[in-house]
Amino acid sequence: MAFSKRKWYLLGWVLIAWGVLDLVQLALFYLAYRGMLGGFTGLIGWDMAEMGGVNLLDVFPAGVLLFPALYAAVKIAAGVLVLYFGKRHVQKKREEEMQ
Questions:
Q1: Structure confidence at residue 74 (pLDDT)
Q2: From CA 84, how far away is CA 92, in angstroms rounded?
Q3: Which residues of 20-38 are buried (b: 16+ CB within 10 A; e: fewer)?
Q4: Confidence of residue 71 (pLDDT cuts 50, 70, 90)
């Protein structure tokens, strides 16, 4: 119980880890999707250079990945803020108890 009263701000690390995990998943998803597209075009005999105006962002808009990436960044930022301000708050309370 005392740990939860004094070290609750360590849950900020959970937010940070959750955000990093989301970013890793997005990166793996993007790489897998890119590999699928390259494998598909190679399978039917197309080369990306022969496709001319077709760009990966035309086939798969960056906006689809933008929202989850921003959400992951917000989780990381929130975790950092919880750690920073939580630690300050706990130290302040501890100083007040000692006086």
A1: 95
A2: 12
A3: eebbeebeeeeeeeeeeee
A4: very high
Which letter, b or e, does each residue of 48-81 get, where b requires 16 or more Cβ atoms within 10 Å of its Cβ? Answer: eeeeeeeeeeeeeeeeeeeeebeebeebbeebee
Q: Is 99 helix (H, G, I), strand (E, B) or coil?
A: coil
Distance set, CA 45 to CA 50, 52, 59 (Å)? 10, 14, 18
DSSP secondary structure letter of residue 58: H
What DSSP line would sit under 38-69, residue for residue? HHHHHHTT--TTTTTT--HHHHS-HHHHHHHH
Look up residue 11 and give its amino acid: L
What DSSP element (H or E) covers 60? none
Entry pTM:
0.66
